[in-house]
Design brief:
Order of helices and strands of chain B: EEEEHHEEHHHHHEHEEHHEEHHHHHHE
Distance between the termini of chain A: 47 Å
Number of strands of chain A: 11
Number of strands of chain B: 12
CATH superfamily of the largest domain in chain A: Metalloenzyme, LuxS/M16 peptidase-like
CATH superfamily of the largest domain in chain B: Metalloenzyme, LuxS/M16 peptidase-like
Number of domains of chain A: 2
Largest sheet of chain A: 6 strands, mixed
Oligomer: heterodimer
CATH architecture of the largest domain in chain B: 2-Layer Sandwich
Helix content of chain B: 25-40%
CATH topology of the largest domain in chain B: Cytochrome Bc1 Complex, Chain A, domain 1
Structural class of chain A: alpha+beta
Distance between the termini of chain B: 36 Å
Largest sheet of chain B: 7 strands, mixed
Strand content of chain B: 15-25%
Structural class of chain B: alpha+beta
Radius of gyration of chain A: 24 Å
CATH topology of the largest domain in chain A: Cytochrome Bc1 Complex, Chain A, domain 1
Largest interface: A-B, 102 and 114 residues
Chain lengths: 438, 462
C-alpha cells in the first residue's frame, strides 16, 4: 500500500474575489413593516436568475376544534384549489407554464407558504399568493378530491413506523397539552370537516397581522418590497384572533412507555425523550450544542457511536431538538430490528444518563461549536436557505445582526452550561418511550 | 409535531425508483477538464458567488457491476469508506470534516458511487487529502465489517417497511431477467449475510482506482492553483488494470409482465415501467419531453427544488377524475438501458385496473397524434426554470460535473436544454409508439391486506 500523503498547508489556491461579508446582516437585509402589519424581508442574490418567496401567517392547528382536528391543514391545502378569479387548473397552468411553484402547509402555530420562480415571474407569484390567501373559493368538488388525498396520507401515516412513533411520543410528552394532537388530524376528524368549516376558519383566522414574507433572489430588495406592498398592503381582517396562551407542559415523573402495533412491518421505530426548550428560550443554544454532542455531530454523535458504530443495532440512531415558539421536545430516535428494541433502548438510556451526570468533554463541545459556525454559510447557499434564515430572525425575534453575532454566541456556551441545561430537560428515569412496529 | 431536525446520514442509496429529477443549470461559464498521468479525469468549475467549495470523487462502480452472490457489495464498500484509514482512523475523519462545518455524504447508484464534501473554501484541502487517502488506504477492519453487516441489514429492514420499496424491487427484478439492474442497490438479504471481508476488499481494490475515478470540484478557487494541489495529492496514486465488466445485456422483452406484491396497509400502489434506452441515446431527449407531458417535469438535480405536476396529462386524467390521489414519474440517466417509471397512489374508492386502463388510454393519445407545440414549449420552459434553481447550489453544480460524466460527458449537460428545445412533436409521438408498448412494459401492483371495502363499484383484477 501507498504511504499517506504529507500534510501541506491549505489555502494556497484560494481566491477571494467574492468581497464583503457573506452572512446576512442589517446592512444587506431589507426589513419593512407595511401599514397593515405584514413584515417584508428581502435580500438580493444575482448569482442565479431565480427568486424565492416564502413566509408564514399566524394561523395553525392550535385553533382546530378536537372533533375537527386537521381543519387548519385542510384549509391551507385548499387555498390552491381555486379562487374567485381562477379555477384549480388555471392556477396551476399559470404556475407550471412559468416553471414556477407555490404551496402552503400548516403547522401548530403557523401556516407557511413557499414559492419559487424565475425572477422575471415574481409578479405572477405574488399575484397568485394574494389571490389564494385572500380570495379562495373552496370549490366543493376540489374539497372532496382533497379529502381523499388527506385520508390517503393518513392511511400511509398509519403504516409508517417512524411517524407513528413520533405521534405516540407527542401524546405522552404533551399529555393534556394541545401539542399532543397531530396537526393532520385523524380519519374521523377529516371526515367531519365541511366546506362551511373551511370558509369560517378562513374568514376568522387568515389575515395580515403577524404575517411575514421573505423575498430572496435576483430582485432588487426595494423593488421586492414595493411589489409585495402592491399586492398585499390593502389586506385587512378585523376578525383575526389573538394567539391563545399555552398551558404548561407537565413534566414526566417516570418512564412512560407506549407501544403501537403496525402489523406486518419488518422494522420498529423507537423514540425516547422529554419536553425541551422553546426556540426563544435562553436555554436554546446550549441545548442545541448539547444535542449535537449527544446525537448529531459527525456520524450522529454519541448515540450514533454507541448504537450504530459499536453495537451495529441500527442504520439510524440520533437525537434531535424540536423547538418552536412554544415548548419544544428533545428526543432520541432509532430504527431497529424488533428483536433489538430493549437492547437499543437500554443503550440510549445509558447515554442519556451519562449526558446528565457528567459535563461533555471540552473537545466534544469545541467540535460541535466549530461545526455550528462552519456550517452556517453552507446553509445559506441557496435562495431557499437564505429565506428560511431571514424568517427565523423574525419568528424568534433574534435581531437582524443575529448571524453576524452567531459565532460569538456559539463560542460563549460552556460545558457547564450544557450540563445545566441537559439536567433541566432530560432525566434517564423520567422519559417518554414510544415504540411503533410489528 | 413540528418535524424533527434532519439527521445527517452517511451512505445513502439513491433509489432507482426515485429516478431522474431532471433539470440543470445555466452553465455558461467555462470549465477545465483534464486527465492526470494516472488516468484520473478532473473537471473544475470556478464559481465565486460564495466562499464555498464542493468536492466530489466519483467511481465507475455500482450495483450494475454486481452479480448474484455479491449483490449490495458496492453500497457496503461505500459504508466501509467511512470506517477509516491509518492516516484518518475511524472517527477522526468524520470529526475532522464535521468540525469545519462541512456538508458531506456518499451515494451508491446503479452505475456509480460518489463521495462529496462541501466546505468553507479555506478548508477544502482536508477533503482533498481525505479522498486521496481513502482511494487507496481504507482498512476494512474485519470487526468493522461485522458491525456494518448488521447496520446494512437494518437499513434493508427499514426499506422493507415501505410498500413502494417492496413493489419497486419486484418490478425491477421482473424488468431485468439478465442484466444486473435486476437487483436493488442495497442487495439481497442472502448476500448481505454471506459477503465476507475479503469480498469487500477485493471489490474496493478492483474499482477504487484513479483510472476508474472522476474528480469534480466547483466553487471559490483559482483553477491553476487547485489543479497543482490535485496533482500533488492524486497523481502519484498508481493506475490499475481497467476493471473487467461482465455486463449481460437485457434481451428485448416480448410481452407484458405483471407483478403483484401483497403487504400491510390500506393503500393500493400501481407502477408502470417501460424499458427505455441509455441516457447517451438520442431518443433520451424526446423521452424526457414525453415524461414531462405525462407526469410533469422530473428534476434531475440532486440539490434544488422541483415544481408541481398538476397540469400534466396523467394528473388531469387520474387525479382530477378521482381515480388516483397522486401520480409521479421519471426516467433515469443510466449507462445501459433502464426504465421510465410511472407511480400512482390509487384513490381509496378505486381499483388498480381502472387506473391502468386510464393510463393506457392516455399513452394511446400520445401514440395516435403528435402533441401540440405549446405543450412542448412549456416543457422546455419548465426545464429551464429547474436549471436555474439548480444553479443556486454550488454543490449541485459540482454534482453535475461528475454525474454527466458517468453516463455521457459534461457536454450532455450543457447541451441538454438545446437538445430538449429541438425535440419535435413527431419525435414525441414516435418514442411513445416505440417504447410505451404493452409488450415493453412491466405492471406492478401493491395490494394492501387491510383495504376497506370500496364505496364505488368497479370490475377488478385486483
Amino acid at each position: 500500500m501507498r504511504q499517506p500523503h504529507a500534510i501541506q498547508p491549505a489555502g494556497i489556491f484560494l481566491a477571494s474575489s467574492h468581497g464583503g461579508p457573506c452572512l446576512p446582516g442589517p446592512d444587506d437585509i431589507t426589513r419593512v413593516e407595511l401599514a397593515n402589519g405584514i413584515v417584508v424581508l428581502a435580500r438580493a442574490n444575482f448569482n442565479s436568475p431565480s427568486v424565492v418567496v416564502s413566509g408564514y401567517l399566524q394561523v395553525g392547528g392550535i385553533y382546530d376544534p378536537d372533533e375537527k382536528l386537521g381543519l387548519a391543514d385542510y384549509t391551507a391545502a385548499a387555498l390552491m384549489r381555486g379562487t374567485q378569479r381562477r379555477d384549480f387548473m388555471e392556477i396551476y397552468d399559470a404556475l407550471e407554464s412559468a416553471g414556477a411553484s407555490l404551496g402552503f402547509d400548516s403547522s401548530t402555530h403557523a401556516t407557511g407558504f413557499s414559492g419559487r420562480a424565475l425572477s422575471e415571474d415574481l409578479a405572477l407569484l405574488l399575484e397568485l399568493l394574494n389571490e389564494t390567501l385572500r380570495e379562495p373559493a373552496f370549490p366543493p368538488d376540489q374539497l372532496e378530491r382533497l379529502r381523499a388525498q388527506l385520508l390517503t396520507s393518513l392511511a400511509i401515516r398509519a403504516q409508517d413506523t417512524a411517524e407513528m412513533a413520533s405521534l405516540t411520543f407527542d401524546q405522552v410528552v404533551f399529555a393534556n397539552h394541545p401539542y399532543s394532537r397531530p396537526e393532520d388530524g385523524y380519519p374521523e376528524t377529516i371526515q367531519a370537516i365541511q366546506r362551511d368549516d373551511l370558509l369560517e376558519f378562513h374568514r376568522g383566522h387568515f389575515g395580515p397581522q403577524g404575517m411575514v414574507i421573505a423575498v430572496v433572489g435576483a430582485v432588487d430588495p426595494a423593488k421586492a418590497v414595493e411589489k409585495v406592498a402592491g399586492a398585499l398592503e390593502d389586506w385587512q381582517n378585523l376578525n383575526q384572533p389573538i394567539p391563545p396562551e399555552l398551558p404548561p407542559v407537565t413534566p414526566l415523573q417516570e418512564v412512560v412507555e407506549k407501544r403501537v402495533t403496525v402489523a406486518g412491518k419488518s422494522q420498529a421505530d423507537v423514540m425516547l425523550g422529554a419536553s425541551g426548550p422553546s426556540r426563544t428560550s435562553p436555554d436554546y443554544l446550549a441545548a442545541a450544542l448539547g444535542n449535537s454532542v449527544l446525537g448529531q455531530f459527525g456520524m450522529m454523535g454519541r448515540i450514533g457511536e454507541v448504537v450504530r458504530q459499536q453495537a451495529g443495532l441500527a442504520y439510524y440512531a440520533h437525537s434531535s431538538l424540536t423547538s418552536g415558539i412554544g415548548p419544544g421536545s428533545w428526543q432520541v430516535s432509532a430504527g431497529v430490528n424488533p428483536a433489538d428494541i430493549e437492547k437499543a433502548t437500554e443503550l440510549i438510556r445509558r447515554e442519556i444518563r451519562r449526558f446528565v451526570e457528567e459535563p461533555v468533554k471540552r473537545e466534544e463541545l469545541a467540535d460541535s461549536q466549530a461545526n455550528f459556525i462552519g456550517r452556517l454559510p453552507l446553509s445559506l447557499e441557496s435562495n431557499g436557505g437564505v429565506a428560511a434564515a431571514l424568517l427565523n430572525l423574525e419568528r424568534f425575534n433574534l435581531g437582524l445582526d443575529y448571524y453576524r453575532r452567531y459565532s460569538h454566541l456559539v463560542r460563549s456556551v460552556t460545558a457547564e452550561d450544557v450540563l445545566e441545561i441537559a439536567r433541566r430537560y432530560l432525566h434517564p428515569d423520567r422519559l417518554a418511550l414510544a415504540i411503533a412496529g410489528p | 409535531m413540528n418535524g424533527l431536525e434532519q439527521y445527517h446520514e452517511k451512505g445513502e442509496i439513491l433509489r432507482a425508483s426515485h429516478t431522474l429529477r431532471k433539470s440543470i443549470t445555466l452553465m455558461t461559464d467555462s470549465i477545465t477538464k483534464t486527465r492526470l498521468a494516472n488516468g484520473m479525469l478532473v473537471l473544475l468549475k470556478e464559481i465565486h458567488a460564495a466562499p464555498i467549495i464542493s468536492h466530489w470523487v466519483w467511481y465507475r462502480v455500482g450495483s450494475r457491476d454486481e452479480n448474484p452472490g455479491i449483490t449490495g457489495i458496492s453500497h457496503w464498500v461505500e459504508h466501509m469508506q467511512f470506517k477509516g484509514t491509518s492516516l484518518f482512523p475511524l472517527g477522526v475523519l468524520d470529526r475532522a470534516i464535521s468540525r469545519e462545518g462541512g456538508f458531506w455524504n456518499a451515494f451508491t447508484y446503479l452505475d456509480w458511487t460518489t463521495y462529496f464534501e462541501t466546505m468553507p473554501a479555506d478548508k477544502i484541502d482536508l477533503a482533498m487529502r481525505l479522498e486521496a487517502d481513502r482511494m487507496l488506504n481504507s482498512l476494512f477492519d474485519p470487526l468493522e465489517v461485522a458491525s456494518e453487516r448488521t447496520v446494512i441489514l437494518s437499513e434493508r429492514l427499514g426499506n422493507e417497511n415501505e410498500p413502494l420499496f417492496l413493489l419497486g424491487e419486484e418490478l425491477q427484478a421482473a424488468a431485468f431477467r439478465v442484466h444486473s439492474y435486476h437487483h436493488e442497490i442495497i442487495g439481497d438479504q442472502a448476500d448481505l449475510q454471506s459477503i465476507q471481508r475479503d469480498d469487500l476488499f477485493r471489490h474496493y481494490r478492483t474499482y477504487y482506482n484513479p483510472n476508474n475515478a472522476v474528480l469534480t470540484v466547483a466553487g471559490d478557487f483559482e483553477t491553476q492553483g487547485l489543479l497543482a494541489r490535485i496533482r500533488d495529492l492524486f497523481e502519484a496514486i498508481p493506475a490499475e488494470p481497467e476493471p473487467a465488466r461482465r455486463i449481460r445485456p437485457e434481451p428485448m422483452q416480448s410481452g407484458e409482465r405483471r407483478v403483484i406484491v401483497e403487504g400491510p396497509g390500506e393503500t393500493i400502489y400501481l407502477q408502470l415501467a417501460h424499458h427505455i434506452p441509455a441516457a447517451s441515446h438520442p431518443d433520451f431527449f424526446p423521452l424526457a419531453v414525453l415524461d414531462s407531458l405525462l407526469t410533469g417535469p422530473s428534476n434531475l438535480n440532486m440539490f434544488g427544488g422541483g415544481i408541481s405536476n398538476k397540469t400534466s396529462r396523467l394528473y388531469r386524467v387520474l387525479v382530477e377524475s378521482e381515480l388516483a390521489v397522486n401520480v409521479s414519474g421519471g426516467l433515469a440517466a443510466t449507462i445501459d438501458p433502464f426504465l421510465h417509471t410511472i407511480t400512482v397512489i390509487v384513490h381509496p374508492n378505486r381499483q388498480a385496473d381502472q387506473v391502468l386502463a386510464a393510463v393506457e388510454r392516455e399513452i394511446g393519445r400520445l401514440q395516435e397524434a403528435p402533441p401540440p407545440g405549446e405543450e412542448l414549449a412549456r416543457a422546455v420552459k419548465q426545464a429551464k426554470a429547474l436549471f436555474a434553481y439548480g444553479s443556486e447550489s454550488i454543490t449541485n453544480q459540482a454534482f453535475w460535473l461528475g454525474f454527466s460524466e458517468m453516463f455521457a460527458s459534461y457536454e450532455w449537460f450543457t447541451q441538454y436544454l438545446d437538445l430538449l428545445a429541438g425535440v419535435t412533436p413527431e419525435a414525441v409521438q414516435r418514442v411513445a409508439q416505440a417504447y410505451f408498448r404493452p409488450q415493453n412494459r412491466v405492471v406492478g401492483i401493491y395490494l394492501p391486506s387491510d383495504r376497506r371495502p370500496a364505496r364505488q363499484d368497479g370490475d377488478s383484477l385486483t
